[in-house]
Structure prediction request, 287 residues.
Amino acid sequence: MALQRHHKVIIGGVSFLLIVFMITSSLFMYMIFTKQVTDVNNLNKKITTLQTDTQTKLNDLSTSVLETKNGLSSLGSQVGSLDSELVKLKASASSDFSGIIGNAIKSVVTIKTDLGQGSGFVIADGGYVVTNEHVMDGATAAVIITYDGQQHRVSKVGANILMDIALLKMDSTSYSPLKLGNSDNVQIGAKVIAIGNPLGLQFSVSEGIISAVHRMGDNKLNVYLQTDASLNPGNSGGPLIDINGEAIGINNFKISNSESIGFALEANYIKSTVNEISQQAEGKNLI
Prediction:
């Protein structure tokens, strides 16, 4: 039976709508596909860029580590001449310290990091070393050089930022600690020496006196000895020693653009801070 005219119109309309739907769907699917391809391409570009940046940073880090290792090797060879310099150091100090330097310096260490260098000293048996926190701040690699020119691996036990104290532990227990004095007994005018590594000059000694006690530091605490013993970058973390051969402070900072205004954290606060750090990290007092 032949289709009626209205039937043909209906069929034609349905067919047209179906074709329009198929075309629209195809265009919509194409747009989705195109967007996905664009997103994937953008993602691949970001991944490639990230990989490139990461590789660049890894290369820079490798170069930095290599330079640090080379610097440490060079530092070790320089320290090897300490014995020959010891006589000169003793001769440069007054008679009050000529017999003290040889013993005290055996407990002092150089701390070399991938960011710079500083000083420190053995604070307790077991290879424990104290230094300033700012010597270690941000460092990712470090080594300790002892007076005999030996290099030692080192780990960080903990730190107190307020007091600017870091407690380290080296992989040797054969070095004797430097005895802490009672900083409450320190008198203004008392003679002292500072041992450290100012401006990269390993195991240097400078002499002076105590200019004041209980000075206020950047932490707003009156816990610092003022001294006119010469302190320079690299001295940070080294000991301030009295005529009894005891560490009465840890050299911390100096007034900018000054020649003889340096500050050392008093020994009694070194003791309490180190014990606080060791209690938190290892559950024991060290001193």
Remarks:
- Residues 75-81 have pLDDT under 50 and may be disordered.
- Residues 183-272 form a domain with the Thrombin, subunit H fold (CATH 2.40.10.10).
